[in-house]
Amino acid sequence: MLIPSSPDDKESQTEYSAFISALQQLGWTNGQNLEINALWANGDTSMIGHLAEELVARQPAVILARATPVTAALRKETHTIPIVFVVVSDPVGDGLVDTVARPGSNVTGFTNAEASLGGKWLQLLKNVAPNTKRVAVVFGRTTSPGGGNYYLRLIEGAAKSFSVSVIASPVQSADDVQHTVASLAVDSESGLIITPDATTTSQRKLIVDAAAAYRVPAIYPYRFIPEEGGLASYGVDVTDLYRRAAGYVDRILRGENPSELPVQAPTKFEFVINLTTAKKLGLTIPASLMSLADELIE
User: Fold this and answer.
1) Nearest of 192, 203, 230 to residue 142 by alpha carbon
2) How far is CA 295 from CA 4, 25, 182, 271, 274, in A?
3) What's the rounded Cα separation, in Å, for the pair 206 and 223?
4) Contacts by 204-213 with C-beta closer than 8 Å and gap 24+?
5) What does the angle CA 221 – CA 9 – CA 201 come to, to the nearest 5 degrees?
6) By CB count within 10 A, which of 176, 180, 191, 297 is most buried?
7) What is the pLDDT of residues 175-220, one digit of tens each?
């Protein structure tokens, strides 16, 4: 396994445990009929290439990869060892597989995106902050799918319907995060959409803290971010992707070819609102919106 976050990250441990548990249910137990080696980049994306090289050198039977840059780094190192990815948004566009139906190589897995996400995020932001007219789309400068264009395109395609302008806001460092959020604070009609990638996930605390400090409404891609203080989220259940990935790992270990296992789309999405954060931002969440939420945090 190659994971861009830290083993100390609570959410990463939840996902890891779900994967191990799902493997056990399929008959694979670490230390008995299976040996699992997990390498962690600790949020340092510059380490991913080195870790990919190290992992491939161990010649495992199959590799589980989290996120686009991890999968791309592993794909560069091997065209023979099976790779099952999770949380990859555009595997065809980023050249990881030939097609969704027939990956055609040693790579397959589970995506975390579908076409309506851009509109969903904009709709949610307008519902919680109706005066929003300018939206900064935050993505990792070097880790976002398509160099940021994948999600930016989805959001820009829906922006006209919501009468908002869109600003591309790539980030890499803490200073980038501060500058992006601070630049929006001068305009009370501004908001943030945080798209999913290894950088924004690892820097989520910085983003949440900056959004709170500058009183900017922000929509996030994963439920654990409002659980950690973010305003609201809509996105795929990542833990579910890990459970499903165990099924592909099982099938490959039993002899199936990853090139013949179709890339799977997400099937479970979650909508979470942090009412405490909304109150601090002076926002009133409509009762109709609260009734749609999978979780309300107070």
Assistant:
1) 203
2) 27, 28, 29, 7, 8
3) 17
4) 204/228, 204/230, 206/174, 206/177, 206/178, 207/138, 207/177, 207/181, 210/177, 210/178, 210/180, 210/181, 210/182, 211/181, 212/277, 212/280, 212/281, 213/181
5) 30
6) 191
7) 999 999 999 988 889 999 999 999 999 999 999 999 999 999 999 9
Quote the CA–CA distance of 71 and 33 in Å, as a whole number. 26
Q: Cβ–Cβ contacts within 10 Å for residue 283, how many?
A: 17
Left if phi > 0, otherwise alpha if psi is -120 to 50, otherwise beta: which for 30?
beta
**Rounded CA separation 182/138 (Å):** 13
Q: Is residue 201 helix, strand or coil?
A: helix
Nearest to 236 by CA among 266, 210, 191, 195: 266
Q: Which pTM does this prediction carry?
A: 0.92
pLDDT tens by residue, 49-98: 999 999 999 999 999 999 999 999 999 999 999 999 999 999 999 999 99
